[in-house]
């Protein structure tokens, strides 16, 4: 074997070894990222999860607002990436506990009775004004001594929370907004930032207030973190004297 042939053979071998290591590294990183995502969402491959939809305010009892349907699509992509399966139920049909299956619950307490139960049992420090009459505090989210008021089309707020019961188990993701647009904004925020949220909180519970800016012009696209209210939201409000 002359030098030219030897160099060609060695080059082919080096290329094959380098490509093999590159493929192995990419596969390892992909699997590690997938495992982290599955752990954060409580969605191992083949697992079943629950998506609880609310009803459209002012619509038929069985109707779902278009933006809440879009929220379902945003979250469905995450569920599919994890290799899990989803069961969609309406809020008044979800008569079961939590922990056995991961759950995504969308909608504020005025349109989702499941949200009412989750707020009472797992976020005792949160209060939401559910008055039907028009006034400045209608729909306001109160937590940690702050009141997050809704200004239609200009400023909307939504709670994004990852919750677990006292016995642990699979998490509940609560997306409780003042409007359907804010619900979709929370779903989009979760889809875009779940890796950072997983690095920050791991598998611990958290509760964030997100601010949706000028939804009349931008829809759910311009969303920012208003506050991390985890400690206040998980702490029961002292009874009034």
Which regions contain 5 or more consecutive residues with pLDDT less than 50?
none
What class do helices, strands and sheet pairing give?
alpha/beta
Share of residues in strands: 15-25%
Helix content: 25-40%
Average predicted confidence as pLDDT: 83
Distance between the termini: 95 Å
Q: Radius of gyration, rounded?
A: 22 Å
What is the string of helix and strand elements?
HEHEEHEEEEEHEHEH
| Number of contiguous helices | 6
Strand order of the largest sheet: 2-1-3-8-7-9-10
User: What is the number of beta strands?
Assistant: 10
Shape: globular
Largest sheet: 7 strands, mixed
Describe this structure in words.
The protein has 241 residues and is an alpha/beta fold. It is 40% helix and 25% strand. The protein has six helices and ten strands; from the N terminus they run αβαββαβββββαβαβα. The strands form two sheets. A seven-stranded mixed sheet has the order 2-1-3-8-7-9-10, sandwiched between helices. A three-stranded antiparallel sheet has the order 4-5-6, with no helix packed on it. The longest helix has 39 residues, at 3-41. The radius of gyration is 22 Å and the shape is globular. Keywords: Isomerase, Membrane, Transmembrane, Transmembrane helix. GO terms for molecular function: isomerase activity.
């Amino acid at each position: 074997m002359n030098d030219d042939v030897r160099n060609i053979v060695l080059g082919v071998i080096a290329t094959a070894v380098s490509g093999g290591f590159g493929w192995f590294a990419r596969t390892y990183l992909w699997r590690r990222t997938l495992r982290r995502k599955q752990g954060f969402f409580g969605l191992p491959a083949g697992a079943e999860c629950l998506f609880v939809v609310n009803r459209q305010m002012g619509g038929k009892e069985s109707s779902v607002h278009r933006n809440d349907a879009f929220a379902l699509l945003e979250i469905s992509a995450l569920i599919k990436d994890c290799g899990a399966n989803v069961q969609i139920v309406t809020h008044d049909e979800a008569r079961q506990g939590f922990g056995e299956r991961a759950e995504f619950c969308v909608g504020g307490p005025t349109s989702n009775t499941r949200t009412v139960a989750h707020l009472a049992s797992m976020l005792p420090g949160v209060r939401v004004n559910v008055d039907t009459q028009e006034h400045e505090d209608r729909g306001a989210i109160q937590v940690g001594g702050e009141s997050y008021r809704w200004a239609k089309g200009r400023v909307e707020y939504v709670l994004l929370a990852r919750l677990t019961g006292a016995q642990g188990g699979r998490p509940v993701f609560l997306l409780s907004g003042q409007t359907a647009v804010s619900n979709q904004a929370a779903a989009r925020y979760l889809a875009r930032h779940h890796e950072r949220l997983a690095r920050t909180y791991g598998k611990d519970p958290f509760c964030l207030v997100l601010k949706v800016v000028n939804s009349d012009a931008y829809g759910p696209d311009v969303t920012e973190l208003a506050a991390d209210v985890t400690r206040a939201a998980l702490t029961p409000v002292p009874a009034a004297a």
